């Protein structure tokens, strides 16, 4: 059973911003979903540490420190509060893997661009064609694929593979955009961000978490693609608010708040305010659309969409306190 935490305020749209950028976000962001966490979080955290060590991903002290500051099991707990311990462990492992892979791809893309394509192609070859891995990251991905196959049906696994390949492709698009930042408008930024978010691959795991497989009427409901897109965007855009200072200092550009800052030539707090308006609109549209179609869904379909809700809620509460985004607490916002 998931746990409801009282005393953690949800942001209200009418509150008056004050103090830091973090406080501005918390006072203005619309977050209608209550905070929940998974009771197996500590177990998942221990499992992540063991899994990363097994594949040598934390042999580098910088990577080990990044994992400490990122808390992947905490994010998994917050966005997957109702899943069993087995699914939670896969979610936590995958989150950890994607943080390691994403940071490595960013470093390679900036310092050695010619090495990025082979790195991303190895991932696609492992996922699509079952090729033997040649790097520690590839070996970890192959094992993650094995874990997914143990809990997912072949069709669910195929969806996981397809969306994981899209994530890898997104990192290549990001590298291209990073080389020409002046030519990246907001729409292009959000298109790339929806791929680099890496959220879509988790949704087949929420299919597998249901007691019954999703009916075709759930899986292929005309509204389902829109719900999925809204949930991914709302989740990752919310993380963008809290990570904007970190990304700006690192020279990143695929971030919703920074895209608004470039487009409107405004301060970062003003850009964050514009991004919040866009996120609030996405969350309200998701709420309305889900309420409209919920009576048409089976219990398994409802559970699947609740997994999408989890990412919206979980990314917000995780981003508020995770050390990776602590810089948001240091930047003042206008009163």
Kindly describe this structure.
It holds the Pfam family Terpene_syn_C_2. InterPro entries: Amorph_synthase, Isoprenoid_synthase_dom_sf. This is Sesquiterpene cyclase. By secondary structure, the chain is mostly helical. It has a single domain (3-329), classed as Farnesyl Diphosphate Synthase. The protein is built from 15 helices and 2 strands. A two-stranded antiparallel sheet has the order 1-2.
Q: Rg from C-alpha positions?
A: 19 Å
- Provide the CATH architecture: Orthogonal Bundle
Strands, count: 2
User: Count of helical segments?
Assistant: 15
Name the features.
335 residues; mainly alpha; Farnesyl Diphosphate Synthase; two-stranded antiparallel ribbon; 1% strand; globular; disordered N terminus
Helices and strands, with pairings:
Blueprint: E1 3-4, H1 21-28, E2 36-37, H2 41-54, H3 61-70, H4 72-79, H5 85-111, H6 113-129, H7 136-151, H8 154-179, H9 186-196, H10 203-208, H11 216-219, H12 224-250, H13 256-264, H14 268-293, H15 299-321
Antiparallel strand pairs: 1-2
Helix pairs in contact: 1-14, 2-4, 2-5, 4-5, 4-15, 5-6, 5-7, 5-8, 6-7, 6-8, 8-9, 9-13, 12-14, 12-15, 13-14
């Amino acid at each position: 059973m998931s746990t409801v935490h009282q005393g953690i305020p949800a942001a209200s749209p009418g509150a008056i911003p004050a103090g830091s950028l973090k406080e501005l976000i918390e006072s203005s962001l619309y977050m209608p979903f209550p905070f929940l966490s998974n009771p197996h979080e500590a177990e998942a955290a221990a499992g992540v540490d063991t899994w990363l060590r097994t594949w040598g991903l934390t042999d580098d002290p910088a990577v080990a420190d990044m994992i400490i500051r990122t808390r992947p099991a905490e994010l998994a707990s917050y966005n997957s509060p109702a899943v069993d311990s087995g699914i939670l462990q896969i979610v936590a492992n995958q989150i950890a893997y994607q943080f390691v892979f994403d940071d490595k791809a960013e470093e390679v893309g900036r310092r050695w661009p010619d090495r990025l394509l082979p790195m991303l192609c190895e991932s696609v070859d492992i996922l699509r064609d079952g090729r033997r891995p040649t790097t520690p990251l590839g070996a970890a991905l192959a094992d993650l694929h094995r874990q997914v196959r143990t809990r997912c049906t072949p069709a669910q696994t195929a969806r996981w593979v397809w969306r994981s390949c899209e994530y890898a492709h997104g990192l290549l698009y990001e590298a291209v955009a990073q080389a020409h930042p002046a030519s990246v408008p907001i729409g292009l930024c959000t298109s790339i961000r929806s791929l680099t978010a890496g959220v879509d691959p988790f949704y087949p795991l929420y299919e597998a978490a249901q007691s019954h497989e999703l009916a075709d009427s759930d899986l292929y409901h005309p509204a389902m693609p829109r719900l999925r897109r809204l949930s991914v965007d709302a989740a990752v855009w919310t993380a963008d608010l809290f990570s904007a200072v970190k990304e700006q200092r690192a020279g990143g550009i695929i971030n919703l708040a920074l895209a608004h800052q470039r487009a409107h030539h405004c301060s970062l707090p003003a850009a964050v305010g514009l991004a919040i308006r866009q996120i609030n609109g996405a969350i309200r549209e998701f709420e309305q659309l889900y309420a409209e179609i919920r009576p048409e869904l089976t219990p398994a379909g409802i559970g699947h969409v609740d997994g999408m809700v989890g990412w919206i809620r979980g990314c917000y509460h995780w981003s508020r306190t995770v050390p990776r985004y602590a810089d948001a607490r240091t930047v003042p916002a206008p009163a």
